[in-house]
Each structure stands twice: as C-alpha cells, then as structure tokens.
Design brief:
Blueprint lengths: L11 H23 L9 E11 L9 H8 L4 E3 L5 E10 L4 H21 L4 E3 L21 H14 L3 E6 L3 E6 L10 E8 L1 H22 L4 E2 L2 E2 L5 H8 L5 H5 L6 E2 L8 H11 L12 H6 L7 H7 L3 E2 L1 E8 L2 E12 L4 H19 L11 H14 L4 E5 L7 E5 H19 L4 H17 L3 H14 L4 H18 L14
Amino acid sequence: MGEKVVAGAVDLSDRQQYRRKLHQCLEGLGRLLAERRFDRPRNLMGMEIELNLAGADGMPKMLNGQVLDRIASRDFQTELGMFNLEVNIVPHNLSGRVLDQLAEELRTGLGYADRKAAEVDAGIMMIGILPTLGREDMVRSNLSDVDRYALLNDQMVAARGEDFSLDIEGVERLVCTSGSITPEAACTSVQLHLQVTPERFADVWNAAQAVAAVQVALGANSPFLFGRELWRESRPPLFQQATDTRPPELQNQGVRPRTWFGERWVDSAYELFEENLRYFPPLLPICDEEDPLRVLDEGGVPGLQELVLHNGTVYRWNRPVYGLADGVPHLRVENRVLPAGPTVADVIANTALYYGLVRALAEESRPVWTRMPFTAAAENFETACRQGIDAELLWPRPGRSGGLTRVPAVKLVRDELLPLAAAGLDAWNIEPADRDHYLGIIEERCRRRTNGASWQADTYHRAREAGLGRAEALAAMTRRYTELMQAGEPVHTWPVDLPAR
C-alpha cells in the first residue's frame, strides 16, 4: 500500500480534492470495464507472507531494518511493525508443478532470510500472532521507520480522536487500549492473489467469501495475544479493533468498520470499489498528477493511483485489486484470510485448497452463494475464527431440497469440499501428484482435528501443567514451535511437548 507515500501535513482542502479525484478514478474504472480494456485470461497467481522476527528465547526482536539490510533482496520488504517482514513471491502460472515450485521458492527464500537474521541474533517465524508479544511492545516507536506507516498511524489516530480499544473475549478476555495502530502489526497473514477477468471477478470473489470460514477453521494459527488465550484465530477481531477509526458513538450508529467481511454477494468488481468511496473517508488524501479521464480520452490506460491507495486502507478479507502490468490493466482477488505458517508445507496445502475451491465453486451451475444467504457466510467466518478446527458451519444441504444445515467443518471438508478442490486443481491443470500430496495434508489435518492453533493451545497447557508460569509457558511453546517449523513437517504431525532444556 502506497509505496511512494511521503509523510507530511494534510490540509483540509486536500480531502475534498482527493474525493473528487477518487470519483474521477471510479468513473475511469467504469469506462475501462465498459470498453473491455482488461487483460485476457492468464491464470496468474501471487503470494505474500508476513513474518515475525524473534530471538532464540522466543521473544520479539525489533530489528527489521537491520535484517532487511542484510537480506538485500527486493523480495523482502518492511511491514508495519519493526518485528515484521514481508516476503513477496513473484507471480506464477497456476498450472503444472506450481505448488512444488512455490514450496521450494519459499523454503529457499525463508532459509536465506533466517540465516541473515541470525547475524543480529534473530530468526524468522511464520505464525499468525507471535505469542510472546506484550502490550509493552505495542508502542508507536515500534512502527517501522517508513513514512507511509507514520502518516497512516497519524491519520487513523486523528480520525478516531481517542485511544483504540481492544476488547476480545474468547477462552480468556483481553481488555486494553492503544494510542497507535501498532497492535495491528501483531497480525501476520498469507495473502493469495488470483488474476481474473472482469466477467469472472464476481464469481471468484463470491466463492472466496463463501469458503473464507473453511480457510480459517482449518488454517487457524493465532490463539494468543498479549499473554491471553482468545479465539482460535484472533487476527480478525484484533485487526478490526486495532484499525477501528469509529468512536463508540459511530459504532452504535452502525457505521461500517474499515476492517470488515462485507454485507452482500456482488455482481461486479466495480461495486466493491464504489462501496469503498461511498462508505469510507480517505485516510491518505495524497493526489497523483495523473488525470485519469484525460488519459482515457487520449487512448491511454490510467494507473488510478488514488483509487488504489484508498483501496489499500479498506481492509476487506477478500479485497478487489486493480493493477497495471506492461501498460495493460487487470483485476485480482486478494485473499487475506489465512494466518502465516505453521510450515511451508502447511502454507502450500492451504494454498492448494483455496485455489482448487474457488475454481470449482465459481464454475458450479448452482453456485453456493445462490443457495446460502450472505449473513450465513459472515456468521460462519466469526464461528470459524472463534472455534477453529472444531467449528460447525452453516452450509447448503446436498441436492435440490434447499435450506441450510450445520455441519462440522472437518466433515464438510472431507465429505464435500476436498473432492471439489481436487476437481478445481484439475481444472487448473495442476500436477496430480502435487494435488494429492497437498490436499492429503488438509485431509490429515481434518482427520486428526489438529492445526496450528490447537497445537499452540495444547502445548501451552502442557507447559502450564508442568509448572511453568504464563509468560514462561508461552515462551517455551514459541521456542518449540520454532524448532518444529524449521523441521518442516506439517503441523498435524507435531508432538505436543516442550523444547529440550
């Protein structure tokens, strides 16, 4: 978001000018869609993974600047917190041996980054929320030293007009406040991109929304925050509250949060961009010199920079993306649901399930979103975040009888969704051996009812039973997680034990 943003004062008139420019960009997007100027089908996917830095003791390290200097690769970038990095995988064609190629690239890149981090006594961790993060780490001075983060923080704090409030009740309850958006940095995710044509966008986005709860239930990996055991996937409530520019009075009025699941199925990408302008005030009112309508009148393709920047400050779990590649516009669905980790094998298994499911569901003759109200998808998402792999989800009954039934997520996946995902991967022409290997990891995760969140919780409680205090148990669990993450076997095979002393 906003790679070239430079921090500076924002005048009152800037917002009105920016709003006018946003509406010009939206009109430009409408013209591009009407004139069918978008790229042909390419079956391109991309991946980003947000990472944590931790020491050998399992505690966070605020060293991303030093680590990035040593890595010295454009594939690795800053993230919001000084204990974060992000690795970007170049786009791949979604076909053939792509799953194994992604796994090999990740292992190589993360291994290199970990060796460089070790030069400053840090290590790379793939996990949804680093369990050893404390409230004392969530201060403005621990934001990455990058202009765009400082400006974003200042604008969000100003928009809220008071401290951000965190109140999450799960196994335990966490209540605290923050004078900055730094707690958002605790959320580290996997982002999966899929380039789609305008004609297919709505079907793919709706499919991604429908399966978001399944992704979370199986992939949950964030049960702890600031020493408290909360939801099995605590990133969504944390992200929503840590970026919530609404004071309580606006929340009571029903004003929408900037982090949200959405409220309806859609018919086009345009609807989502239009919603962004209709509902969300600009946070970074920085105008580009481009006149998008003039560029279109002259036969060119505008970058729509204001639209892109504003879109980056509305935190949908499935986000529409407008981009340019070699002067040709394209659309992507950015799936932001999954936490990072636990291992490369788990990440690629989650990736295989997602791309297989959205392909199969988007091409069904009676799509799931025509048989299930959006409110059920939203309820499923919260249920999956709270309960993880033990969640029971609402899903359309098989056959034509209609109606919804509540079914355990693991049963839904094993009985209905895994065969669909396999068919979807076949439609992408994925190598059958890779399809079977990675979907087999998902099947075993379901059979053993074990994912990253359940392993973390079980291991933490084992440590408490062994006599360790809360902080000691979280640190011991984090160290053991690191050992097993580096060994690379999928999380469903991990023993519930403590690190060797």
